[in-house]
Amino acid sequence: MAKKSAKSDRQQVLDQIRKQQRGADRRRGFAIIGVCLVIALLIVGAAAYQPVKNWYDDRQYADVALSGIGQAASVCQPVEEKKADGNQQHVPEGTPVDYTTAPPAFGAHWNVAGVAPDPMQRKLYTEDDRPALEALVHNLEHGYTILWYDKTIADSSKQMSYLRAIADKLAGTSNFRTKFKAVPWLSTDEDGKTFPDGAHVAFTHWTAGGVGQTDTTKQKGAFQYCSGVSGAALSSFMEKFPYFDSPEPDGM
Q1: Do 49 and 103 share a structural domain?
Q2: Which of 70, 74, 75, 84 is nearest to 204 (CA)?
Q3: Which residue ranges does UniProt annotate as crossing the membrane (predicted)?
Q4: 230 backbone dihedrals φ, ψ, rounded to 5°
Q5: Which residues have CB under 8 Å from 19's CB, separation 6+?
Q6: Against a cut of 0.85, is the pTM above it?
Q7: Which residue of 33, 85, 94, 228 is 20 to 30 Å from 135, comparing CA positions?
Q8: Within a domain: residue 245?
C-alpha cells in the first residue's frame, strides 16, 4: 500500500488549522454581535429609564389638588412686596437688563412678537431651554406667576416630580388663571444674584395694585421665598395675586 506523502499530511494539518480558525472567527463574530446588542439595549434602556421613572413618580398626583402637591406651606416665608417700575418699558431684543431683585418680579423687558412674552402652553423649563429673563419679565407684566427654582431643586428627583405635577395641574392655554411658568434660576454668572439664605424656590408676580388699577405708581412686585416646592403655598399665592391683577392681564 502506498504511503501518504508528507505534503498530503501537511495539507491536512493546514486544512484543520484553517477550519479551526474559521470556527474561532465565527465565534468571535457572534461574541461581538452579542456585545453590541447588549450595549444597544443598555443605551435604549438608559434613555427610556428617566421618562418611565418620571411617569411612574408623577402618576401618584393624578387625583391630587394643586394644594396637596409637595411640601407644606410652612416651608415658605411670608410674602414680600416691593414698589415696581418698568411698566411698558420695552428694550430691543438681546438687550440685557440688570434686575435689582433675585428673581425679578418687574422691570424693563423685551417686546418681540413670538419671543416675548413666552408662549403660555409651556409650563416647565430646565436649564437647557429656559427663556431669557427679559422675555419672562414680559410674561410677568401680562399676569403670569413664575416659580423660580435653583440647582438644589433641579438636582432633587423628588422636588422635580413636584414641579412636573404642578405644571400638569396648570396645563392649558384657555384659562388665564393658569398663567404660570416654573423656570430655573441659573448660576450667578448668568443671572447675577442669588436667593436669600435657605431659599431654593421663589414665586414672583407683577401686581397692578388692584383689579383694573391704571395708576402705575400703585404697581408692586410680589415675592415669596421657600426652602422647597409647595403646591399649597403656590395655590395661596396665585389666589392672592391672580392674573387679572396685573398691568396687562389680557395679553397672552
Answers
A1: no
A2: 84
A3: 29-49
A4: -130, 110
A5: none
A6: no
A7: 228
A8: no
